[in-house]
Amino acid sequence: MLWHPGRVADPTSAPSPVDRPAGTEDTPDPAGAEAAGGATDALDALVGDWLTVPDVAERLGTDVGKVRRMLQDGLLLAVRRGERRVLSVPARLFDGDAPVNHLQGTVSVLADSGLTGAEAVEWLFTPDDSIQGGSPIEALHSGHKTEVRRRAQALAF
Questions:
Q1: What is the pLDDT of residues 21-73, one digit of tens each?
Q2: DSSP output for 80-144
Q3: Is 73 part of any domain?
Q4: CA distance to 3, 63, 65, 127, 142, per residue, from 122 (Å)
Q5: pTM of the predicted structure, to 2 decimals
Q6: Contact at 8 Å (CB) between 77 and 117?
Q7: 45 is in which domain, residue-wise?
Q8: Range name among 7-21, 41-55, 68-82 with the lowest pLDDT average
Q9: Which residue, 55, 75, 90, 107, could crosslink 51 as a Cys pair with Cβ 3.0–4.6 Å?
């Protein structure tokens, strides 16, 4: 199953029914929980600061339900992390009190390129000296959406 903006990333497993729609709070699957350390640690090293869904709601001045809709609509990306598999959003996806400008379109291009949600987060945060700002997320912060999306489209080939 390919990931799409309405799916929440699970860094502990391959794209499958384990990728859950935003808003589902299922109990962790034993196989995924056992493998959680390595994939989550790698993402944590790249991303740094994370926000829970309630934290995002507070930052945006809205309710948790609206944040879950934003995740379903591909306005934001979230990954289930940690032992309790808490739904978490990279803090750098925000520019002040709003999502980074042009993030939604970029998330859509990444999904169309076949990346899972966790892979999309990893791609956005992976350092790349050949792009303005040093990584795709920093390039988006700098207003270089065309370059970021061109590179995201190239992933499909």
A1: 333 334 333 223 333 455 668 888 889 999 999 999 999 999 999 999 999 99
A2: EETTTTEEEEEGGGEETTEEPTTHHHHHHHHHHTT--HHHHHHHHHS--TTSTTSSHHHHHHTT-
A3: yes
A4: 14, 27, 26, 10, 19
A5: 0.74
A6: yes
A7: 30-154
A8: 7-21
A9: 55
